[in-house]
Amino acid sequence: MEEMNFQPNLVAKNLVSKTTGSICVVLPQISExxxxxxxxxEMIRGIVKQARDSGYDVIISSGAxxxxxxxxxxxxxxxxxxxxxxLLCSRKEDAVxxxxxxxxxxFVLVGRSNQYDDILSVQTNNVTAAYDAxxxxxxxxxxxxxxxxxxRELIVSADRLEGYRNAMRESELRVCPxxxxxxQVLRDSGYRAMSAYMSLSERPTALVVVDxxxxxxxxxxxxxxxxxxxxxxxxxxxxxxxxxxLSSPPISSIDMDMYFQGYTASQILIRSLKLPGxxxxxxxxxxxPHRLIVRESSVxxxx
Amino acid sequence: MEEMNFQPNLVAKNLVSKTTGSICVVLPQISExxxxxxxxxEMIRGIVKQARDSGYDVIISSGAxxxxxxxxxxxxxxxxxxxxxxLLCSRKEDAVxxxxxxxxxxFVLVGRSNQYDDILSVQTNNVTAAYDAxxxxxxxxxxxxxxxxxxRELIVSADRLEGYRNAMRESELRVCPxxxxxxQVLRDSGYRAMSAYMSLSERPTALVVVDxxxxxxxxxxxxxxxxxxxxxxxxxxxxxxxxxxLSSPPISSIDMDMYFQGYTASQILIRSLKLPGxxxxxxxxxxxPHRLIVRESSVxxxx
DNA sequence: CTGTTAGCGCATTCAG
DNA sequence: CTGAATGCGCTAACAG
Lengths: 303, 303
Description:
Two copies of one chain form a homodimer.
Chain A: H1 10-17, E1 22-27, H2 38-53, E2 57-62, H3 66-78, E3 84-87, H4 95-103, E4 107-110, E5 120-123, H5 126-139, E6 145-149, H6 155-170, E7 180-182, H7 183-198, E8 206-209, H8 212-225, E9 234-238, E10 252-255, H9 258-274, E11 284-287, E12 291-293
Parallel strand pairs in A: 1-2, 1-3, 3-4, 4-5, 5-11, 6-7, 6-8, 8-9, 9-10
Antiparallel strand pairs in A: 10-12
Chain A binds a DNA duplex through helix 1.
């Protein structure tokens, strides 16, 4: 105890305590193209805040593909560099989830897994969220409602599509296959795709869109094509990024509270880490409520 | 060497090698309010990519204020948990910079320091960038050009203001004090502030705006007030976020290549870490070129 | 060239 | 209750 302000060597401390005081979060590459960028920074802020408050550090991990992601997180976990992991995104038959689950590593998934039901996770009910979005459009008098989807391998895409179908079925509305589009098409050639879409003999009068970013692109293409929102086409999308209220018209969107999802994921993980038994195999699914923010893009009548 | 696939304990390895193979990046809180969110995730992606390729891990650090940030990075560095740090944002008389510099820790600043000139840094020339933006507006025939600034304590705000003033002075154009506004005002009450602004007896016909996000807000307020962009007011802003080309009209913006800035910062830091002498006190300033992307918000004549 | 040992900086344990 | 020894898992220097 030489001088007063003395900082112990954390590495040595970690070695003896067999705990690192760190968690890693896997920053996905796949959804980078299709989902809003600000999406993840919000989650990360939430994770870092909570981890910091709990005395944990956060390591950002990533990989160009599923295999690289798995190897990165494996090195960290097996090398005892981190105590647990947070996955920000879930794919169908996700190799990273499988690795973490079968390896018995502590981890939390932000999203749903289609492989295991007994894992720690924080998620919004995407089926219900899409159902709500669709119901809202139906309540505004729409009967021909389309759906713009995200990458097929993401579970969130499938869930939202299901919620949309549920709402349509419940109201006995027809879903024309032509009405369901993958968002990627729009990013590649928004104008052309939208032109074709709006020329359908029986075109939709409203759209449920899987991410706000795509809505921005749609808005732009529609304006160029001379269509008006919401009069010619009403829009509701997901994630409620900061900018949706500044677009013209402002976009109706379902808020998922990304910061809180990150905060909660971190909380669940660290709590499980601190449990003596470390019974992470126990089922623990935390549902974060969503809420629809109605703005002009889905409301015809001006007040 | 029991089994074939064996992962050594990195903590023990680090302890003996006296090197951690990790760097930390300080995620600033201050600019969260005034600058685009997607801004930082881009930098982080660049940092993580380069660090990963160099065999380094990235720890995200943050704090609610300058002091907390300093303590967080201090704990990491003095506790030998990381080998160096990257600062994503520079304030005037920045306490974190001062701590790192006087402590002799390896670090790279993304941005300019007003305290030290002999530190590792990667930056865009914000003075020139703002000069270019202003010159562009002047070349479009504008003479009454205003400026919307960011937080005063950020060096980037001051530099851009200076570049704007330089261009105006060079062209012998007057800068009316009423024309220079702090962005925060607009976020608090965009409509009201903009209404007052446009009612000035001698109001500007063009604006240089410190961040794209503020431009979005301006666009919204102006539309509500019945003004047209670029006819009533032309706009150029900074950072060139993904969404500027999807707004209506698309916003002219100066691209700063955030991903590359992050990538470069990581590269400089890790290179200095690997140097035997670790002569980080050597001056090394990397300037990342910017470029103006002209879009409709600053061009009156339709082609 | 292969196998053994010392020590990295702590925390925990045991002895004084 | 305070102080010295042991070991965390690895790498390095060392001896066989």
